[in-house]
Amino acid sequence: MRIGIDLGGTKIEGILIGSDGHEDGHEFARERIPTPQGDYQATVQAVAQLVRHLDTTTAQHGCSTPPSVGVGIPGATSPTTGLVKNANSVCLIGQALDVDITTAIGRPVRLANDANCFAVSESVDGAAAGKHVVFGVILGTGVGGGISIGGRPLTGPNAIAGEWGHNPLPWPQDDERPGPPCYCGKMGCIETFLSGPGLSHDHAQWGGAPLSASTIVAHAADGDAACEVTLKRYEHRLARALATVINTLDPDIIVLGGGLSNISRLYDNIPHIWGDWVFSDAVATKLVQNRHGDSSGVRGAAWLWD
Questions:
Q1: What structural domains and CATH numbers belong to the chain?
Q2: How many other CB atoms sit within 10 Å of the CB of residue 207?
Q3: Helix (H, G, I), strand (E, B) or coil at 104
Q4: pLDDT tens sequence across 59-89
């Protein structure tokens, strides 16, 4: 059996699933607790408490061996320092999180970026099951990405594989230069255009009312002309951004996650657009919505161990 932990900014979720012939992928238990805000030591102890509680469930199901533990985090572990970097939960930055959780629970733990966990989850038993090279996309408050090769996360020597959100929007049009400022310090990152706040900002910038991303989508479906034009701009940008992924990685499949992955029209419209920028006579890569939804991160964390 396996334990997966999704360490988020507001909640920590834990899951116990079967593996190694013991009802593979079946969910035996799930728990969610609030994330201690701005308190690193309390966060480590909260993760340990959640693991210990899931351990008791393991024994109840007749498994005497302590399950492996994987943790998805909103950042990455630096291969150079061994410390967390690029985390939007800033209390994690500069901490030896894997070492501290290992000490707290008394057994090894594996950490991975939450987008990588998403990609692994969908490649193991999700929407990309059976596909070898999977690119997982997060379109939400931010824009992230992860790569799974043969069901294993690709991290890279800098621990940034798949971080497409902090590349510039490709083939920018004149009115897209230099682009909105990004928290990373650059201008015109993909994230500033394709995140939920980016979609809202773009609509307002073109004279629309200040609306949330979900409201823009709903109004477009109801025939609102201004919201429809905003969504078309969004689709055009997403197609260009994903075309660079296909040109670089040539994945078998791209799986969308995050709140904006629920825009159903993307799965028909984007593949009809991205061929204009993909360096090929045809595009065999599939674009699909995730299968496990909000559970993909925690399930992928559980699958981090071979």
A1: 2-121+295-302 (3.30.420.40), 129-290 (3.30.420.40)
A2: 7
A3: helix
A4: 787 777 899 999 999 999 999 999 999 998 8
